[in-house]
């Protein structure tokens, strides 16, 4: 009977192997060229590169990286089953059972975000050249009264 109680307690303690071994949050790292760019996510995180922030393993979001003088970039961050998460999830078959599997699935402990790290190279904003100033119009010289030569009189001596 003591063995049965011990096995039951061990099963409960070890239930949800991925949740125990991997946790329910993940660190997302963002690196940009140039550095010191502003990062804003669609789920409310913000920082200045290079930086790291924490998110729920279940979170999918868009990270917008921007810096004055550069075109902003939107990077979609998705989730997928991680290799270690799958192993922990499978470990539930041996120890945690259906309860452990349910906990891991509900908490997202088997997931990871990608890309991680987020690495971007921001492109400078194209400068638009102002049109060249128009050349001043060359005006034809208009003869004035002083310029009129009386050709009837012939050469003067």
Automatic annotation (TrEMBL):
PROSITE patterns: PROKAR_LIPOPROTEIN. Residues 148-157 have a biased composition (Basic and acidic residues). Residues 131-157 are annotated as: Disordered. This is Translation initiation factor 2. It comes from Labrys miyagiensis.
